[in-house]
Specification:
With 335 residues, the chain is of the alpha+beta class. 32% of the residues lie in helices and 24% in strands. It has two domains: 133 residues, 2-Layer Sandwich (60s Ribosomal Protein L30, Chain: A), CATH 3.30.1330.10; 186 residues, PurM-like C-terminal domain (Phosphoribosyl-aminoimidazole Synthetase, Chain A, domain 2, Alpha-Beta Complex). The protein is globular and about 55 Å long.
């Protein structure tokens, strides 16, 4: 997917002059003072433990706007329905969209609906687009960051902003969403049902922006934590070292991954965020995160380094492991 985007999409559609454009490959783009995001969802099955495609579409779009430091304002919803989709299933999905919008304090204000032939989609695909705008919390955050990082030359929170010494915070357990989808797809019977972590995070992010000092944020969706950290490494030109013992993973998620030979660091999440913050503000940001329901299991998992340009992990047994960009998708159609 990454190669296809770099070989085809960027050369043909990239190059437009704006503050944060397509070429940056951030979670969203910026034109003027607006943040714009479009996100398509083809998850299978459309209903899964802890959520459904409707909740996923709202949370995914809202979170991609929020991690740039913006507050989402409104959404546009495109529905592509397969012939034979039960009206009750459609009602259930749309009700979930409404509920997730209420959590995030946004509304769907426009959209489109199409119907395609049976057995093309697996029931339903949703494209959710959204706009957001930076506010006083973002301005305060950047002001605090610049007290310690005089060279910070952007007013947005971007993948390229990470620098040596910055601390890396993870807002909670990883792998929950991907394992919840996988267990349903493969009909794997787990002792305790793993539920997706899918949720909008804009209110939690708004609170930590008021603390200040955050320079990079990302929701580790497709490719999980491993992919997100490597994107930071590549765009910021720094190394990243993390501690395995500090990464929160549910025991049942870890067990499922071990059984199936999947690395939990490569499994997608839909209700977590990784945060790069200047070291002087890291403990305050962590404390604020832990005061929220969404971030109560947050941990500082590592830091950026100038010693090398890799993502490495100090293992529980004391060794070091290189964390590479995932090759392929260990759990297909999770979002």
């Amino acid at each position: 997917m990454a190669k296809m985007v770099s070989d085809f999409v960027i050369p043909i559609l990239g190059g437009y002059e704006c503050e944060v454009g397509l070429d940056a490959l951030d979670d969203a783009s910026v034109i003027g003072d607006l943040v714009l995001k479009s996100d398509s969802h083809a998850v299978q099955p459309i209903f899964f433990p802890g959520g459904d495609i409707g909740r996923l579409a709202v949370a995914g779009t809202v979170n991609d706007i929020a991690v740039l430091g913006a507050q989402p304002l409104a959404l546009a919803c495109g529905l592509i329905l397969e012939e034979g989709l039960a009206f009750e299933d459609l009602r259930r999905v749309l009700t979930s969209v409404r509920s997730a919008c209420e959590e995030a304090d946004v509304s769907v204000i426009t959209g489109d609906t199409k119907v395609v032939e049976k057995e093309c989609l697996g029931g339903l695909v949703i494209n959710m687009s959204g706009i957001g705008r930076g506010d006083e919390a973002l301005e305060h955050n950047i002001k605090i960051a610049r007290q310690y990082r005089k060279t910070l030359d952007t007013k947005w929170i971007l993948d390229k902003n990470l620098r040596e010494g910055d601390k890396i915070i993870l807002s909670g357990t990883v792998g929950d969403h991907g394992v919840a989808i996988m267990s349903t797809q493969e009909n794997i019977g787990l002792r305790n049902e793993v539920r997706s972590d899918v949720k909008p995070l804009n209110h939690m992010i708004g609170k930590i922006l008021k603390v200040g000092g955050i320079v990079s944020m990302k929701d580790p969706t497709r490719g999980g934590l491993a992919n997100s950290l490597n994107e930071w490494r590549e765009k910021s030109h720094v190394g990243i070292q993390i501690q395995e013992s500090h990464i929160p993973i549910r025991n049942d998620v870890r067990a499922a991954c071990e059984i199936l030979g999947i690395d939990p660091l490569e499994v997608g999440n839909e209700g977590k965020v990784i945060i790069g913050v200047v070291k002087e503000q890291a403990e305050e940001v962590l404390e604020e995160l832990r005061s929220t329901d969404e971030g109560r299991e947050a941990e500082i998992i590592g830091e950026a380094t100038g010693e090398f340009n890799l993502v490495t992990m100090k293992t529980i047994v004391g060794g070091k492991r290189i964390i590479t960009t995932p090759i392929g998708d260990p759990v297909p159609r999770i979002c």
